[in-house]
Write a structure and sequence with these properties.
With about 180 residues, the chain is α/β, with parallel strands linked by helices. It has four helices and 15 strands. The strands form three sheets. The chain has a six-stranded mixed beta sheet with strand order 3-6-9-12-14-15. A five-stranded parallel beta sheet has the order 1-4-7-10-13. It has a four-stranded parallel beta sheet with strand order 2-5-8-11, with no helix packed on it.
Length: about 180
């Protein structure tokens, strides 16, 4: 199961038809977001030797790239970390499938009840998602937004505080190479 998650994450970077050892190696070497998610996924392994080593590596890369995503965070298939730096996620956050997290994103809570994020969601750079909000499927959140209220499905939201600017049935073009 863990390797299915790794394959789904790689799919987001290279596409479903290009999942192979060459693209895995290339992305592991040159893409900090994929490297981090690889070790994050391996922390969930049933093998204690693999999960133990993965926890050390995840912590090492978390410090190096300032990616604070705890191992116990519930994350669906196909996580994509754009630019691979400066992301903070509360461990009580629930992240759906095919979600893009951009640089300088913070998802937090003071009351241990953080956000629930749907499938096929794009979160732009410098976004703060505060407390127990629900973000629907196929949502796009613009750069610099501060989300303090629920966002319905198929919405485009931006601003401080974030407001729904538009609701569109067109597919989320920022959530490419989806894992199905």
């Amino acid at each position: 199961m863990v390797f299915t998650y790794v394959k789904s994450d790689l799919c987001r970077y290279v596409g479903k038809d290009n999942i192979n050892i060459y693209n895995f190696s290339k992305n592991y070497i040159f893409n900090t977001g994929f490297k981090f998610t690889f070790w994050l996924r391996l922390t969930q392994s049933k093998n204690p030797l693999i999960s133990g080593f993965a926890k050390i590596q995840r912590r090492r890369f978390a410090t190096k790239y300032m990616l604070n995503i705890p191992s116990n965070t519930k994350i669906g298939f196909g996580l994509y970390i754009g630019h691979g730096q400066c992301i903070v996620v509360n461990p009580t956050t629930k992240i759906g499938n095919n979600v893009n997290l951009s640089q300088f994103t913070s998802i937090g809570s003071n009351h241990n009840n953080a956000a629930t994020i749907g499938d096929n969601v794009y979160i732009g750079p410098n976004v703060c998602i505060v407390e127990n909000v629900k973000i629907g499927n196929n949502v796009k959140i613009g750069a610099g937004a501060v989300v303090i209220k629920d966002i319905p499905e198929n919405a485009i939201a931006a601003g401080v505080p974030a407001r729904v600017l538009n609701i569109s049935d067109s597919p989320n073009k920022y959530s490419h190479n989806r894992w199905e």
